[in-house]
Amino acid sequence: MRKDIIGHYQMKSRHLNEVWRLTRELGEAIGNNDTVVIQMVLDMRGEELATIATIDEEIREGLANLPREKKEELEKQIEECNDYMLQVWRKTVALDQHLNTKIAGKDSFYFDKTQMGPPL
């Protein structure tokens, strides 16, 4: 189960990197005013975020079923994974905020500066 949990963290990391890549691609499509590509990338990004939500649930379930000693053994690896994923998430949200505000202006999800995107 221990390797399975770390494997889930690694899988989540790969999907977060894909969300970052797709967000950059979205910026290019917006710059080119290519509405077909914009919609396609938004759909793909939504699928990646849904996959991340599923992985998060599997991680929660896996951790809930682990004995406390095993959780303690995994703490350092989990912390390292979380630190890396948080960096990727922050740059993704920053770019998404820029793109969303550029397109939607005052109607942007991010116009209220307290919004930081969906929770990681």
Q: Would you mind describing this structure in some detail?
A:
This is Flagellar protein FliT. The chain has one domain. The radius of gyration is 17 Å and the shape is elongated. The chain has 3 helices and no strands. The chain has helices spanning 2-31, 35-64, 68-104. It has 120 residues and is an all-alpha fold. Helix 1 (2-31) runs antiparallel to helix 2 and helix 1 runs parallel beside helix 3. It starts with a helix and ends in a 16-residue tail after the last helix. The model has no long low-confidence stretch (mean pLDDT 90).
Radius of gyration: 17 Å
C-alpha end-to-end distance: 23 Å
Tell me how many strands there are. 0
Percentage of β-strand residues: under 5%
- What is the number of independent domains? 1
Main β sheet profile: none
H/E series: HHH
Helix content: over 70%
Class of secondary structure makeup: mainly alpha
Tell me the overall shape: elongated
Overall pLDDT:
90
Number of helices: 3
Low-confidence stretches at least 5 residues in length (pLDDT < 50)? none
Layout of strands and helices, then pairs:
Layout: H1 2-31, H2 35-64, H3 68-104
Helix pairs in contact: 1-2, 1-3
Main attributes of the structure:
120 residues; mainly alpha; 3 helices; 81% helix; Flagellar protein FliT
